[in-house]
Design a protein that fits this description.
This protein is α+β, with helices and mostly antiparallel strands. It folds into two domains: 8-190, Jelly Rolls (Sandwich); 200-301, Homeodomain-like (Arc Repressor Mutant, subunit A). Helix content is 41%, strand content 20%. The chain has ten helices and ten strands.
Length: 302
């Protein structure tokens, strides 16, 4: 087994973020991976992440914050609550900003850097085992994977307990194998399409896709494709699982974001409407009134 070590560039990533660094695995002498525990509160200015050859995994561990990421001339937003995760592939930089409900509402997150050589090593083991590998990039603005999140939190606890690098190395190998299997599609049994089923994993993908694209005018076809089932079955299966139609649930998510933006930012109502996919402020105000019993301006003033 090769000696694994995170990239020197990863050690500079924390300094590129406006977050406070609470703890780093460099303090414990870990070299097989890098774990940084961060805290943020209020709102950040726009910043750009530092490039590294390692795979970056972020796990929200406390509080709630909203991120906005620039790409292709547009800003995409997502809400991070405890357990939410994000994946950034090697060498990719991200122009972004984050915000919380205020200075009294901090959030905490773990930033884990998994070495490029570790991914290549496990890919070679897959090849030798005759398992097909895919080219799907390990990249996601927001997703949920309870097993992976618990693993990363366990690494943080191990760091506080003084665990050696051997613990980090073996945990990192399992975590990388899991991410490749579940999120790069290397041996994901759930990837088999069954036209009438919406599994927990598929439902989670749809909900994460909604959360990451609240400002977009999403269609039923887009949501069904994300679930990997036919449009005909998707709406019925979604309602069975969630107790409401996809668009009713999507509207609830948008109204929740609107309430948060109205209470925690000074954005004009028209900009809040646009962030919630409403191109006409009047249509947004009418929808907001139906869901909250107040106009956007009255809600903000209250």
């Amino acid at each position: 087994m090769m000696l694994l070590q995170y990239a020197d560039a990863s050690a500079r990533c924390a300094g590129a973020k406006p977050n406070a660094l609470l703890r780093s695995s460099t303090d414990a002498g870990w070299t097989s991976l890098l774990l940084d525990h961060h805290e943020g509160r209020g709102a950040s200015d726009v910043f750009e992440t530092y490039p590294t050859s390692d795979l970056t995994l972020v796990v929200a561990t406390h509080g709630e914050h909203r991120i906005a990421v620039a790409g292709g001339g547009l800003w995409r937003g997502a809400i991070y609550q405890t357990g939410a995760m994000g994946l950034t592939p090697p060498y990719q930089t991200t122009r972004m900003r984050w915000s919380t409900a205020g200075a009294d509402h901090p959030f905490r997150s773990i930033h884990l850097y998994l070495p490029h050589d570790l991914i290549a090593d496990i890919a070679e083991e897959y090849r030798r085992a005759g398992t097909p590998t895919a080219e799907r990039s390990l990249s996601s603005l927001v997703f949920r994977d309870p097993a992976a999140a618990a693993c990363v939190v366990a690494l943080l606890h191990a760091l506080h307990a003084g665990a050696p690098d051997l613990y980090a190395e073996q945990t990192g190998r399992w975590l990388t194998t899991h991410l490749l299997a579940r999120h790069a599609g290397w041996c994901d049994a759930d990837a088999v399409r069954e036209p009438s089923l919406i599994s927990d994993a598929r439902l989670a993908r749809v909900l994460e896709y909604m959360s990451a694209n609240l400002e977009q005018a999403l269609t039923l076809d887009q949501l069904a494709r994300e679930a990997g089932i036919s449009v005909h079955h998707f709406a019925r299966r979604f309602r069975e699982r969630m107790g409401q139609t996809p668009f009713a649930h999507l509207t609830e998510m948008r109204m929740e974001m609107a309430r948060r933006l109205l209470r925690t930012t000074d954005l004009p109502v028209a900009d809040v409407a646009f962030a919630c996919s409403y191109t006409r402020p009047a249509a947004f105000a009418a929808a907001f009134l139906r869901h909250t019993g107040a106009t956007p301006r009255a809600y903000r003033a209250g």
